[in-house]
Inverse folding.
């Protein structure tokens, strides 16, 4: 190449690079929330693929080929900001504003078409949402149900019974009548509708959000959410590489260690998230020790732009000793940590009551974007469970040899839920889907500890006449339950039966939205099959019950209108819900219960919402009537009950639990709810809630009383008209504050008051009205951002800050006598549960 040509090429190259250099510019700026820098905010150039994110100090630097245009700044929980830029004007500091709506789209990475999350004003229902940060702050050493204590019409009690023993009611309806979903998968027990939080202790570590839809809700599934629908959305496979280690300690020797790691989205389209937790503690009530592990694995695969797969496996194997109600006089004399289950054995305090369980759950989510207007979401899931509840027993000989045995509840559960969504036009949306489930439960009693005896004897199995001696013991270690279980009929005591439940549901929904007006209509049809096989009480050829098939349905609809920040809405719905299997077969036999018919629920709701940049207000009014209701309660047998049933030829021991089931009950629930959230200043967040209910029983019920061996003690009829529904406060209100003191440092506090609280429904009296009480919780958080990827966080919680002595529940209503003693108007002979006193927890978390 000659010199002239070289100069020519050099000139051309210079002009080209000069043009590129002139076209490119670097935009710099800073993103804050008005007080603190925001790390991880997304910065995009509108109409291009150019983007970046803010560093630990909220700063960003973005190179673009555009000389002017518009930046989009996005961060979860805040409104998207639109900022114009040019080659001459500096960007400066951008202040993000917290969103007034529950903008959750970025949280739900998989299962978008299945997970029924209400998005702020779009769905006309009563809803409250708790996001990941608040879950992590508020739970501390408690069950995940603690995240919902500061919401209207929710009452959480029973914590003092032991780890995972809390119970929750919504609008006066217990957990068996509130629908719980995990990533779109139903998790209520198929046989009785119950949820045991000890099996779900890992949810506090893996939940991205918890949303409660009170009342009818907006669930598209063929489920009947009488009290409400509660959605747990777990952390799907995280798209950022990194992890954390966390250590939590608390009162009564609580110790909890967690480690988690995310690979981020790898070049092959896979992403993996994993977490493991180990915990143990002595428990609040005397001798309610417990220990366990939580594990979580999520494997995602992005096949292409139209297909996403995510496999999740989680479980929480655990064991814990249990508390229960005791006489109020005992709590007053022995202290609030008194445990009626504790006995003295060889001079040592011992608690034989124990729960142990391992319930791994796996689900595979598939999201398919069929077109710009249609999508299909499907989850296939399986749950295998092993475990039971241990207590002390005596054998069938005249010597009544003591031993320990566990009532075992194993099951295997498979299901699939699929939902097709179609955008018919810009105003009309339609979806349809199905819900299939297959459940088999296995129930028997097994010896767990012979207490030094060489063997014990039992009777009752039709294939084993006379006394049958048993010398084998089986473990209560939740990991060993899968292999260490009785295979012979000799080792299965008291009962031995299987439950078969098959369920098929079809559901559909159509939604309309235009010019602030929205409307929806939902409907579902379902068929449920129930059968039972009893190999303990029935001879060959008679072991299978008849097949019981029940048809159910529900319809619900709603209207809303939004003008500016104001929304008014109304909902109505009717359910015909099949009875649970445990209510279908009478006396735990193959006999079909004539009282077990479809329950009928009618729900009406009106609401108003106001949303603005600084304050959100929601007011709801509801009325729910429930006919053909089945209720249950339990109480501890006192000497009077023992004498009564012994005289009737029944077997009942002092301190044994008597279970009462009431059929044909009608309940009428109505009430008002208020929820407020405000941020008047950048350094202050304020929340408030209140609810007033009027919940009563109506009509005559048929009641069956049983002992712990499920032997019928008595059948009665009683008129329940006007009796107050218990287990929850019918009036509650509270407020919470959170102050942002400086960069990374905040303090928060919550106040709650409960009034018109009634105990469980006893077998022979009205529910007992308990004293009003209030509680104050407080916490402090501090986070130090070490680098872009590394941070260290501290959190301290103090619950019941002022150590309030209060009664959270009662299971009796004793008549007064000449020697009756009272505490705040309560007969101290009543069996009650005392709430936790002052408790605390502290944690440190290192993110990498």
């Amino acid at each position: 190449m000659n010199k002239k040509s070289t100069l020519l090429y050099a000139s051309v190259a210079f002009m080209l690079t000069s043009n590129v250099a002139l076209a490119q510019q670097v935009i710099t700026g800073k993103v804050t929330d008005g007080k603190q820098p925001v790390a991880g905010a997304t910065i995009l150039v509108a109409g291009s693929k150019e983007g970046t994110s803010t560093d630990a100090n909220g700063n960003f630097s973005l190179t673009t080929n555009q000389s002017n245009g518009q930046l989009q700044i996005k961060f979860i929980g805040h409104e998207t900001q639109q900022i114009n830029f040019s080659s001459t004007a500096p960007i400066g500091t951008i202040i993000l504003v917290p969103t007034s709506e529950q903008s959750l789209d970025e949280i739900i990475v998989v299962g978008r078409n299945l997970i029924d999350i209400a998005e702020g004003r779009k769905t006309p229902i009563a809803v409250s949402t708790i996001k990941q940060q608040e879950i992590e702050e508020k739970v501390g050493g408690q069950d995940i149900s603690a995240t919902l204590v500061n919401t209207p019409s929710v009452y959480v009690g029973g914590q003092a019974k032991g780890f995972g023993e809390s119970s929750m009611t919504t609008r006066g309806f217990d957990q068996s009548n509130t629908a719980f979903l995990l990533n779109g998968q139903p998790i209520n027990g198929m046989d009785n509708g119950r949820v045991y939080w000890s099996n779900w202790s890992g949810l506090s570590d893996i939940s991205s959000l918890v949303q409660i839809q009170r009342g009818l809700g907006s669930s598209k599934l063929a489920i009947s959410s009488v009290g409400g629908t509660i959605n747990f959305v777990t952390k799907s496979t995280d798209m950022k590489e990194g992890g954390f280690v966390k250590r939590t300690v608390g009162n009564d020797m609580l110790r909890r260690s967690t480690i988690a790691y995310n690979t981020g989205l790898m070049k092959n389209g896979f992403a993996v998230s994993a977490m493991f937790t180990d915990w143990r503690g002595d428990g609040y009530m005397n001798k309610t020790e417990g220990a366990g592990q939580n594990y979580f694995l999520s494997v995602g695969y992005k096949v292409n732009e139209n297909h996403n797969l995510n496999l999740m496996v989680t479980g929480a194997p655990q064991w814990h000793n249990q508390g229960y109600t005791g006489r109020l006089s005992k709590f007053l004399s022995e202290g609030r940590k008194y445990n009626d289950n504790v006995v003295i054995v060889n001079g040592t305090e011992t608690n034989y009551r124990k729960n142990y369980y391992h319930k791994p759950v796996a689900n595979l989510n598939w999201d398919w974007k069929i077109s710009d207007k249609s999508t299909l979401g499907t989850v296939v899931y399986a749950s295998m469970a092993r475990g039971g509840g241990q207590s002390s027993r005596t054998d069938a000989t005249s010597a009544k040899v003591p031993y320990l045995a566990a009532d075992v509840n194993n099951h295997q559960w498979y299901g699939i839920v699929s939902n097709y969504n179609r955008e018919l036009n810009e105003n009309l949306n339609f979806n349809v889907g199905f819900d299939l489930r297959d459940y088999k439960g296995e129930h028997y009693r097994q010896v767990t500890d012979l207490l030094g005896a060489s063997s014990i004897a039992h009777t009752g199995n039709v294939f084993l006449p006379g006394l049958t001696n048993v010398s084998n013991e089986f473990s209560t270690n939740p990991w060993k339950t899968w292999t260490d279980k009785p295979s012979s009929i000799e080792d299965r005591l008291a009962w031995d039966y299987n439950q078969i439940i098959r369920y098929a549901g079809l559901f559909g929904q159509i939604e309309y939205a235009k010019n602030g007006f929205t409307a929806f209509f939902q409907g579902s049809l379902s068929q449920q099959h129930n059968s039972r096989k009893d190999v303990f009480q029935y001879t060959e050829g008679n072991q299978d019950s008849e097949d019981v098939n029940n048809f159910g349905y529900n319809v619900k609809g709603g209207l809303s209108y939004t003008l500016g920040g104001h929304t008014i809405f109304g909902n109505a719905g009717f359910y015909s819900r099949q009875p649970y299997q445990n209510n279908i077969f009478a006396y735990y036999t193959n006999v079909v219960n004539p009282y077990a018919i479809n329950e009928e629920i009618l729900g009406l709701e009106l609401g108003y919402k106001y949303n603005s940049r600084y304050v959100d207000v929601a007011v709801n009014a509801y009325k729910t009537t429930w006919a053909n209701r089945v209720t249950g309660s339990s109480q501890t047998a006192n000497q009077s009950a023992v004498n009564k049933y012994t005289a009737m030829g029944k077997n009942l021991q002092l301190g044994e639990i008597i279970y009462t089931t009431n059929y044909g009950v009608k309940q009428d629930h109505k009430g008002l709810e208020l929820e407020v959230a405000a941020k008047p200043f950048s350094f202050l967040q304020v929340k408030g809630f209140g609810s007033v209910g009027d919940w009563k029983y109506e009509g005559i019920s048929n009641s069956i009383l049983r002992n712990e061996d499920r032997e019928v003690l008595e059948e009665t009829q009683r008129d329940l008209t006007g009796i107050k529904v218990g287990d929850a406060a019918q009036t509650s209100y509270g407020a919470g504050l959170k102050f942002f003191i400086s960069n990374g440092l905040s303090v928060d506090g919550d106040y709650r008051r409960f009034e018109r609280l009634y105990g469980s429904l006893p077998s022979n009296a009205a529910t007992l009205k308990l004293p009003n009480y209030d509680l104050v919780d407080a916490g402090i958080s501090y986070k130090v951002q070490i680098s872009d990827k590394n941070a260290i966080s501290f959190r301290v919680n103090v619950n019941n800050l002022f150590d309030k002595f209060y009664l959270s529940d009662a299971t009796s209503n004793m008549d007064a006598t000449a020697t009756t003693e009272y505490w705040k108007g309560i007969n101290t002979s009543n069996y009650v549960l005392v709430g936790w006193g002052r408790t605390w927890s502290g944690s440190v978390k290192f993110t990498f």
About this structure: The longest strand covers residues 657-681. The radius of gyration is 30 Å.
